[in-house]
Amino acid sequence: MTAKRSGARSKRPRRTEFQPAPEPRGEPHLLLERPLSLERIVATAVELLDARGIDGLTMRRLADRLGSGVMSLYWHVDDKDGVFDLALDSVLEYRGSPQMNGAEDWRVEIVHMLEDWRAGMLRHPWSVPLLSSRALGPNILSRLELLGRTLSRAGVADKDLNVAIWSLWNYVMGATITRTSFDLADSDKAATQQHHAHPGERYPTIQRSRLLFDDDWVGTFRKGLDLLLAGLAPGR
């Protein structure tokens, strides 16, 4: 599930979590009001990705937003890949919900966890392509650990656990990609609906179900998830 990266690596160990970094030397005038930190770099990277997308994040642009010199960033991160990894993992953190603590129905826990995951990716659409190509960080691994533990408690056998986890992963990712791909402007949606208003005899099932007019994304996601969970642990 990880993508191999090419190119030479820094000899310094990579920082993959929020760990303190040595104080940068030089450029003290840039650090008087708001000292540069890994937390600030990650938060600003997320803002930049939200505003400009993956191609819009450059180390120069990130440094400008932070009021810093580019070289100062490298005291906290090794390269732009490291910024991507940290930004991605930060938006995928799962804090749970007080109502989930001790929930008797395991389905309630999983539905909340996966709906939160989907909602987080929709708030940050750039996270969808990154998640399929980056190394998995501690926050997404913690989410997968909780998912596996909950499925085990529901009675999913160890031999089927990986299949269950990846099936849910694929469902969430596929549903999110579909939602972002069909996020049309009202004018485009009206033109599409008009074009397919009369699919004719070739597509009677599509016409009967009004598939191309269904925009209940949240309801469809939840119903599909219920069907998937019922198949993963039938009778429980």
Please give a handful of descriptors for the protein shown.
mainly alpha; disordered N terminus; 236 residues; 0% strand; 11 helices
How large is the count of helical segments? 11
The proportion of residues in beta strands is: under 5%
pLDDT under 50 segments (min length 5)? 1-32
Give the H and E element order.
HHHHHHHHHHH
Give the class from helix and strand content and strand pairing: mainly alpha
Radius of gyration: 22 Å
Shape: flat
* End-to-end distance: 30 Å
If you average the pLDDT, what whole number results?
Answer: 81
| Beta strands, count | 0
The main β sheet shows up as: none
Residue share in helix: 55-70%
Describe the model.
57% of the residues lie in helices and 0% in strands. The chain contains 11 helices and no strands. The chain is flat. Residues 1-32 have low confidence and may be disordered.
Task: Chart the SSEs and their pairings.
Elements: H1 38-52, H2 59-66, H3 70-73, H4 80-91, H5 106-123, H6 127-131, H7 138-153, H8 158-181, H9 186-195, H10 204-209, H11 217-232
Helix pairs in contact: 1-2, 1-4, 5-7, 5-8, 7-8, 8-11
Describe the structure concisely.
With 236 residues, this protein is mainly α. The chain contains eleven helices and no strands. The two termini are 30 Å apart.
